[in-house]
Amino acid sequence: YIKSFSKFENDYFDAYAYDTIWSLAYFYRLKLTSNQSNTEVFKNIIDNIDFIGATGRVRYLDGGRIGEVLVEQFVACRMMNNETCTIPCYEEEEDCHLTVVKIFRAKYSESKDDPPILYTLSPIMWHGNGPPRDRTNQTVQFEHIYLSVFISISICSGIGLFMSCAFLAFNIHFRSHRYIRMSSPTLNNIIL
C-alpha cells in the first residue's frame, strides 16, 4: 500500500478534501443522534462544526467555510530585501527570478460574528506607475461639418435638383420630337 500510495502526486487540495470528509462525518454523527429532518437543524449542525483539521481550524458560517485567506503575488525580481522587490525585471532577462510575495492575510477571530482581520504583509507591486486601468477611457467629442463644406454640398445638390427638373421639363415638352421619342422618354422621366 505504501509503495503504491507514494507513487501518487500530492495535490494542494488534498488537505481540503480530507477536512471536508471529516466535516461530513461529524455532520452525519450529529444528524443520527437527532431524528429531525429540518433544514434549520441541518444549518445549526453545520454552523457548530469546529475542529482542527489538516488545513487549520475548520469552521463554517452560513454554509461557507471560515478560514484564513492568503493573497500572494508572483514577482519577477533581480534583488529582494525583506520580501519586497527592489529591482523588478522581465522573466526573459538573465538574472531574473520569479518569487512569491505574500501580500495580505485575512484571519477570522475566535468569534464567528466578528469580521476578519486584515494584515498587510507587503505592498502590491505594479508594472508601470500604478495599477492597470480597469476600463477604457471614453472621450466625448462632438462631430460637426464645417460650414463651408455644408454650403458647397448644398449648392451642388441644389444645382443637381434644378438640372433634373429642367431635363424633366425638356423631356415632357419635346416628347413628340423624333430624337426624344427614340430615346424612350418615359424611362428617362422615371430615371429623372
Q: If you had to describe this structure to a student in words, what would you say it looks like?
A:
It comes from Rotaria magnacalcarata. InterPro entries: GPCR3_GABA-B (IPR002455). Keywords: G-protein coupled receptor, Glycoprotein, Membrane, Receptor, Transducer, Transmembrane, Transmembrane helix. This is Receptor ligand binding region domain-containing protein. GO terms for molecular function: G protein-coupled GABA receptor activity. It is built from 6 helices and 7 strands. The chain is of the alpha+beta class. It folds into 3 domains: about 60 residues, no CATH class; about 50 residues, no CATH class; about 40 residues. The strands form 2 sheets. It has a 4-stranded antiparallel β-sheet, with no helix packed on it. Strand 4 and strand 5 form a beta hairpin. Helix 2 packs across helix 3. The longest helix has 27 residues. The mean pLDDT is about 80.
